[in-house]
Records
---
Amino acid sequence: MRMNKKEIHLHYTTLHLTEADRETQDLVQEAQRAASRAHAPYSKFKVGAALLLSDGTIITGSNQENAAYPSGLCAERVALFQVGHLCNGQSIRKAAIAVPHVMGEQIIPPCGACLQVFAEYRNAQDSEIQVILANGSGHLLVAPDISTFLPFSFTNKHLSSD
């Protein structure tokens, strides 16, 4: 059997925070503020997330570590689970994730577990979630949708309905 060759093209833009629109700048600043509230005594790796909802509400989260490492939670999931609990029915328009202590041009993406949770929310709302990754130097990577980072996500469509 011969399979058709398929290619994946990643769509994203890189720019500096000063070049972004006001809404994006404000969302990144909220993510940076959230990072300052991270509980990261072990890794010292502080991350903040800010989610802009369809009604204009911004929900934030920061990573929360625990001495038993698997018991902690990433900033993205802290924010996403708040949306699921507090804002039922609102869709997520944009997500800003900030890692303020990373300088230079390096951009840190969400971990695989966070990407999977993002994919679940994106699938449930059936609309794109723009993702903005920010570092401490003001460098941004802007992707039109979470699928840029996880093009082959596992969703409820893969579960058997039997």
---
Amino acid sequence: MILPIVAYGAEILRSKGKEITPDYPNLNKLIEDMWETMYASNGVGLAAPQINKDIRLFVMDSKQVFENQDDDEKGKYPDEPGIKQVFINAQVTALNGQEWAYNEGCLSIPRIREDVMRNETVTISYVDEHFTSYEKTFNGITARIILHEYDHIEGKLFIDYLKPLKRKLLRGKLDDISKGKVRADYKMIFPK
């Protein structure tokens, strides 16, 4: 089932997600719905707060980025061909490498894209949908998507990384999103 995406301005996007256990109600269905919602919205990642759930869960698929890139982009990133993964109760344990800029967007902040600086490499501990524990290091585009989605379960948004002047210039567009004056190609829930 395709779920509506929570728009910028909603309180849940600023709250830290709670850890869950394997007996979380209808977890498999929720994950299935998150994948369906993410793909239907043309996203590469989706975190539970974006579908109005205050839990530490996100899904991401960096394979799509590589499948859809131009020929001149092939081989540019070290994580090619990417991964498709569920992350539950994730905790970043290390950030390494140089910071690099990449143009990011967010399903909860439609029609706004900005260059964001993030580390090249992230080490993260998490459990998958079977509650198998991992601690892995990711780099490139995959690391960037993981960090973007991880921020959602920490109550952060990609616009938090922008310089104050840039955020000030975006204030009108952000206010329009929170007031429901911006439309996306997918169903959204706007703050009251």
---
Amino acid sequence: MALKITEECINCDVCEPVCPNQAISLGMEHYVIDPARCTECVGHFDQPQCALLCPVACIPKDPAHPETGEQLLEKYQALIQVKRLD
């Protein structure tokens, strides 16, 4: 399941640089996570780094984008493959 950043975000800039998939960017009002790129850090870390480091705990799982661990791993592998082709 991809993560999402809620409106409680204080735009502290902690989450964006720790995302290994470049899934986080600054939105109109606060940071946002691209669910197509979010793997919850599967393939990189044991825990989602953005949620781990967020000082206001505003990065929950996004129920609108349910995925299994296997699906997250497949997404990670596809993202790595695209990166290798670039």
---
Amino acid sequence: MELAANQLFNRLSNAERILVAGAGGGFDVYSGIPLYLALKAQGKSVHLANLSFASLRDDGNRLTEASFEVTADTAGSDTYFPERVLSRWFAEKLEQDVSVFAFTQCGARPLLESYQHLVEKLNLDAIVLVDGGTDSLMRGDEVGLGTPSEDLVSMTAVNQLDLPYKILSCLGFGVDRFHGVCHAQFLEAVADLTKSGGFLGAFSVLPNTVEAEHYLDLVEYSTQRTPSRPSIVNTSIASAIAGHFGNHQVTDRTKGSELWISPLMSMYWSFELEAVMKRNLYAVRLLETESFFEVTDVIRSFRNGIAAKDWQAIPD
């Protein structure tokens, strides 16, 4: 291992067929687009998936009980459909026909079945789960977990797959502060994973790269086409990539809130998924969940039975 090597891409150097999947739903898959484009540029076969919050219709595009294939022409809402907007951006801006595999909100068992179907359908040898934010690293006893249900059901499902490469990559340090996440405790998690060998390093998405230029264009494109519910996470990350700092506002959804945009927000932090899951205190309880309600209930019950850590401030 050499300092000059990017450890995430070094880890995936022998992977040929990769799925980049949004772990936390909504616009999370957008946070993986710079990685998707960089891996495609290396000549790899790369696909996209996302845990979806959209109302998915069964118009012959259903793959499993809990998964669908979304294209630029898929029927659905004209006000909120991040997966279709993403497919249309590829078609209109890059002249590429790109499907986005969308998972319904469900428990770990049906989600595992859906991921296994894609592993076989696409002959995958790697999955990179992407989290827009960093709350996916919360193990369960922190002062705040953010929005753990979506991230953890995805991570629980993927961790059970028999694949050579399973990675979690987070983009958006600082975004989760309004969901009660203590970022000192995120850094504590990174330190723990460094000790265990599960941390694959961090690197910035720089604005003068092709991947960043396409990502910034995608965020602007999606914001224009989802005006009532633009992505706070991705507009914040885009602001950081563009070099803004502090309370830089770009959408009415954040009016009344004070943002903290910083260069740390434009960095990917990547980890071996298995190492992250070994550190988690409650994920094993999610294995047999069928519905998304069960997932949230398991996490709520776990939290009610423990004493959470106190808030830790990052020194000024």
